[in-house]
Amino acid sequence: MGARAQSTRRWVPIHVFTNTPVADADIVVSDPDGRVVFEKDHATNNRGFYPAEIVHRPKSFRVTVLANGMKLSSDVNDYREVGGEVYVNPVTTMVSRLLDRRPELSLAEARAIIRSFLGMPANTSLGAAMRQGPYYVSPLFSESDFIKQAKAHGGFDSFLESQVTQAIAHPNEAHLFRPTGPGSAGIGSSIAVAVAEELGKSALSWAVGEGMGWAAEAAGLSSPGATKEDIEHLQNQLDDLQSSVDDLSNQLTQSTKAIEQAINYSQYNTLSISALKLAAQVNVVNQNVTDLSDGCPTVPDGEPPVPLSTYCQGLLGTITSQLNESEIDGSFEEFASFLEDTGAVGNKGLLHLFSLCMGQSSHFFRYSDSVKIQDMWGYWDAVEVQAAIAKAERLHLQHAQDDPGGQKVLLRFLGNVNATPPTNGELQNTHNAEAALVWPILPEGTVVNTDDQALWLTVYPGSNNPQYCRDSLTNPPNLLGGIDFKPIPPDIRLQPTVKSSFTSLFRSPSRNQLTSLINGWKGHSIAPGKWIADQSGPKAGDPPNTDKSIGFPVIYTTITGCTTSGPPWVWTYDSIVRGQNYYVFNLSDGTSSDENSSVGIVSVNGNWVYLVSDVAYEFYWFD
Fold this sequence. Notes:
alpha+beta; four-stranded antiparallel β-sheet; 16 strands; globular
């Protein structure tokens, strides 16, 4: 009987957090009929972590957590043992409370309602991506802001119930809990860079608690030189790297939907299918290493070793087996082959192809499209760091640091940031080579016309007006010093964040450029001015900071200092006959007129100057 019970016993790793890990919490696990299948008082450790050993675990269940006067919960359907982490947090609790009040809903439907209510994309992970740490903040949901508002509105439980009530009554009214302050604008690959630096520090030793390489080897042991702070630093970095990967993987899924119509999509998709399959395998290994670090950590120097529990022994055995798999051991090099260009004509890597596809996917390339490319790079950078962690853990388990040959292998791969001067290894060199394939963020207040790669200002620099304006043809644009087009002053010039020096100046467009601006407009019922405003502004599925995707304004409304009666006109300048002919472009019907035929028409209407430059190639790939 005992053997049979042991064979059906399963570990369920549970992570509980609000804006900080929830320690010393009571845990109850119940089946769909409410029967308790597991309970444990004072279960979670100071990381908010507890592996529940459940006999005859049901496929679907609810985890309920009681701590500090809070009642948190998370519902699970069709539990899968591989990668089966259970995350309990305020958002999962809102889903559970909604199911209690609307039992006819499925778990998927309840999650969709709460995601929509919180202003999250449809595929947002409610697990590790919701966790907040010293190196990671979710751009979609701030645990700290939620707790702060809860304290100001009657406490956690009553505030959470009120939010669920609002979600039921007004599901289309988004209630945002977004981070503010330093580090809230986006996570990029900052945590991956930080962890990679720690790997370089621990190339030859983990005894002093520097970086990775000792999470598995020293589990439960007293590590010479390692302090409580060293161990917590490692734990935080591993947790936050997992959160970053969880968040960015879902953002990549959402962004990929936007490029499915691109010319090069099939080429991108072929590579990404294999790369994402390997990434999922590496992520499972790293989650196990993270759980080992959180649940079975190294003991600070001077404290006696802690006997490993059955859970820790089993997890350590699983990790050791996984690290010795050739696919995991060679994953770092495999990811580099997926991501980098090979140099052969037409043989592009994922970084190049994703940027290329993003540029092909719409008429205007915007700030948020640029962010998607950066986030895509951030995801793969983090995944490669996960692969590097796996390789470092394996090398340390083999005690490579203890013999000259193994030391050479470690230094060749990890480099040594403690050397004088610091040395780069394959890890740093690969990161630098891949980073060179990723263009910088498109400046706010600009868009790129993907038809002719012209860069347009959508907000006139140095002015509160969306565009520079003139009242009539009798007062032609004396733009930036007249026909000599003097340089834009430094205070209103776009910052030189591009790969080469920013030498191209903004100027009035030619008639051909303005014609290209409305390519694709014909056949739409709306006017071309409204069409380009819609095409160049924020879109559904954009990153949270969509307000920085500033499209062309709808210039039928009043702009201070401009006459707005009649149809809107935009000045053009034909550089071929420089200084001789100005044109005006009608954003009501897409027609243009030269100075001789249009004086009587446009002299009483609102007239604007759009500014254009030719440096679009600095912001995304196009071939």
